[in-house]
Design brief:
17 strands, Rossmann fold
């Protein structure tokens, strides 16, 4: 990768107007896999054509940030880099051509964008986008193939998941920014950038859980519990929560799980236990652990004839599905879900309004709050399995 120096001069107007100028701000920079993030001053360029510069007010950490930071996939080891993809904030300025947002708008960035013009965006059966879909290998802006972040010495700092929210200011393609109701509480709206939308959307949109349905959720982290919330709000009759962490099982019960299973306490496969207690299996299972063995158990836990397994966990290892093709002839199906099958810019504003009116219990997902300067502590809470979402205040 060629190293490009930034020769732009840093300028600020005396009246505090930063539009069109380079901003100096603090960001948590990752300098290498598993190295503590360094909160330091960086330079942030103005937004270019069809880009938005956002003042981040709240951000949080999810397992995807953690997995890439740990270096689980060498192809993603590009440094220095600014991670983060769950956040909320206010538009500072917009680039040429941006018409659906302006300075002062309340927004959430989304890793899975929507340009609105490509064949994918125009499809009613997909929420992907040809240019702005989620891409963990992408580390520069679409417009010119360059970064908008620089060290104070003029060296490039690379982007992450179309968003890079571990910074007081970030630049995002407008296709990856969603304008929301200014009355919506930005702290909880942060959760719509990834975890809650992914899990709840998988229950509502991908599986279309109906009243009376039976559900099994494998892995009760934030995404798994968002699935639970989605199934509960749809009137599922039984929700089985599976996890090896007893604290997560207890939290699951408080959020709507009706039956709990700790695989470490069983003397038989989980799918056999589920088949016994639910007379042949569940209607829907959701794999939220990113483990191939768990995926197989989730698949086999569904009922023959109509069972559907939704894959949500991130699988970084280069291994294939642990399913024999002939097993699909039993009527069970399996499908992956990206961002809960929400079309971000089209559907997320309405989802935000539903959350404002109590359709989803967002507050229960926030287990910790810390100042941005303590971001490494927030990472440790996630590693230790103690937090669902730790909100960082910038």
């Amino acid at each position: 990768m060629a190293i490009i120096k930034n020769n732009n001069s840093v300028s600020h107007s005396k009246d505090g107007n930063t539009t069109g100028k380079v901003i100096t701000c603090k960001a948590a920079v990752a300098w290498g896999p598993a190295q503590p993030l360094v909160v330091e001053e960086i330079l942030v360029d103005p937004p270019q054509k069809m880009e938005v510069r956002i003042k981040i007010l709240f951000t949080s950490i999810c397992q995807t940030d953690l997995g890439v930071w740990l270096g689980k996939n060498e192809a993603q080891n590009v440094y220095p880099r600014i991670f983060g993809h769950e956040a909320s904030g206010i538009v500072e300025s917009v680039g040429e051509g941006v018409e659906d947002m302006k300075a002062g708008d309340h927004v959430v960035p989304i890793f899975n964008g929507e340009c609105g013009d490509c064949v994918f965006c125009k499809s009613k059966t997909s929420n992907l986008c040809k240019k702005f879909r989620v891409d963990p290998l992408k580390n520069v802006m679409v417009n010119d193939g360059k970064t908008r972040f620089w060290t104070k010495q003029g060296e490039p700092i690379y982007h992450f998941l179309n968003t890079s929210t571990f910074s007081e200011y970030t630049v995002v393609d407008s296709a990856n920014v969603v304008k929301i109701d200014p009355n919506a509480p930005l702290k909880t709206m942060t959760l719509l950038s990834c975890g809650v939308s992914t899990g709840l959307g998988a229950a509502w949109n991908t599986a279309n859980v109906q009243e009376g349905s039976t559900v099994a959720v494998f892995g009760l982290g934030a995404v798994g519990l968002a699935v639970v919330e989605g199934a509960r709000s749809r009137g599922a009759s039984r929700i089985v929560g599976i996890d090896i962490n007893s604290d997560k099982l207890s939290r699951g019960i408080s959020m709507g799980v009706t039956d709990i299973i700790n695989p470490l306490e069983l003397h038989k496969p989980v799918h056999e236990e589920i088949s016994e207690i639910l007379e042949g299996g569940v209607d829907f299972s959701f794999e939220c652990a990113g483990n191939l063995n768990v995926l197989r158990e989730a698949f086999l836990s569904t009922h023959e004839g109509w069972g559907l397994t939704v894959l949500l966990g991130i699988h970084s290892a280069p291994k294939t599905l642990p399913i024999h093709p002939m097993e699909l002839f039993c009527g069970r199906r399996i499908i992956g879900s990206v961002f809960g099958d929400f079309k971000g810019k089209t559907q997320l504003p309405q989802f935000a309004k539903q959350c404002m009116h109590g359709a989803v219990k967002l507050d229960e997902f926030i287990t910790h709050e810390l100042p941005f300067s303590e971001i490494n502590q927030a990472f440790q809470l996630l590693i230790d399995g103690k937090s669902l979402r730790c909100i960082l205040h910038l």
